[in-house]
Design goal:
Elements: H1 11-14, H2 21-34, E1 36-38, E2 46-57, H3 73-85, H4 91-95, H5 103-113, H6 119-128, H7 130-136, H8 143-148, E3 153-155, E4 161-163, H9 170-180, E5 188-190, E6 206-214, E7 217-228, H10 232-251, E8 254-268, H11 272-279, E9 285-291, E10 306-311
Parallel strand pairs: 7-8
Antiparallel strand pairs: 1-2, 2-8, 3-4, 5-6, 6-7, 9-10
Length: 323
């Protein structure tokens, strides 16, 4: 069977400029029109394809920031910076007005207490009450915990294994490796810790990052086992590109390319309005990112260090999140 081409249509066919976003829209159309209808974990149902690849040039400050709907890149950036802290409680996110992860603790709280509290009130209480946040706001050892504190167990004198107080900081090791051995094929950050998956509110979707140095250019590959193309992808692509840009700055390299690879790439059946509206739109503008400060460490960036120009987003398209 011939492979389906998910690359962007040619400008001659489109009659428009060869904007990078057309490859995303082509994948969206392919899934919606040809994807396999599947019953998923959430019960909502999806249309899905297995295996997809998109590529984004990050030179000259370019970033894969979708324009066919508004993407709140500062929210995505705050989430990524939070990952780098290793924190797993939503309190710090809620305090910044970032509610990306609130639905999972909220659903657990409602289920276990029977309290039909609103999302707004739940988030406010998480911020105001440290004890409440400790009880209900933790997500388990998700993303950041694995990135900067992957658990290590060592034999003790009693013959049992004890967890070392500080685990492996994969991100710190990555920076060191890129600087000391750029040609290595082991520049990897992994989030899929099999032993700890049951304790996570949600197993990692953007699970594996690999980086490659060619000359003075740093490229990165993200393998995403599960991708909600309608909602999640916009944040995932931005964050992966941001990761490359930050690493490149820390290591004295130039940004190269982001290669995004998806396993189960899907659209939820209740996102029909989003899909149809987004496919009717034409990409506009080309967003560029400037990092205005070079911190001492990759862990020292602040939201104020990032400025975006050239972004011409069209209206936000609301759609429900499947929990």
């Amino acid at each position: 069977m011939a492979l389906l081409d998910t690359a962007a249509p040619s400008p001659q066919v489109l009659g428009q400029s060869d904007h990078w976003e057309y490859q995303y829209l082509a994948l969206m159309r392919r899934i919606w029109e040809q994807g396999d209808a599947r019953v998923d974990r959430t019960g909502v149902g999806t249309r899905s394809v297995f295996g997809a690849e998109l590529r984004f040039d990050l030179s000259d400050g370019w970033m894969p920031l979708l324009s066919t709907k508004r993407v709140y890149w500062k929210t995505a950036t705050r989430e990524f910076l939070w990952f780098l802290t290793g924190d797993t409680n939503i309190r710090a996110l809620c305090a910044q007005g970032v509610e990306i992860w609130t639905d999972w603790p909220l659903e657990r709280y409602r289920r276990e207490t029977g309290d039909a509290i609103s999302r707004e009130d739940f988030s406010a209480r998480i911020v105001a009450d440290g004890d409440f946040a400790a009880r209900w706001g933790d997500l388990g050892p998700v993303y950041g915990k694995q990135w900067v504190d992957w658990p290590v167990y060592e034999p003790a004198q009693d013959g049992l294994y004890r967890r070392r107080p500080q685990g492996v900081n994969q991100v710190a090791d990555l920076v060191t490796g890129l600087q000391s051995d750029p040609g290595s094929r082991r520049h990897i950050v992994e989030g899929w810790n099999v032993a700890e998956l049951p304790a996570m509110a949600l197993p990692p979707c953007h699970k594996t990052y690999q980086f490659h140095v060619s000359g003075n250019r740093l490229s990165g590959l993200l393998y995403q086992r599960s991708c909600d193309l309608g909602l999640g992808f916009a944040f995932n692509a931005w964050s992966a590109a941001l990761f490359i840009r930050m690493l490149a700055q820390q290591c004295g390299l130039e940004p190269g390319e982001l290669v995004w690879m998806g396993g189960d790439v899907h659209l939820y059946l209740n996102h029909a309005a989003l899909v149809e509206e987004q496919l009717s739109r034409t990409p506009s503008g080309e967003a560029r990112l400037e990092i205005t400060r070079n911190p001492e460490s990759i862990f020292d960036y602040r939201i104020e260090d990032f400025q975006v120009s050239g972004y011409q987003p069209q209206a936000h398209i609301a759609a429900p999140v499947a929990v």
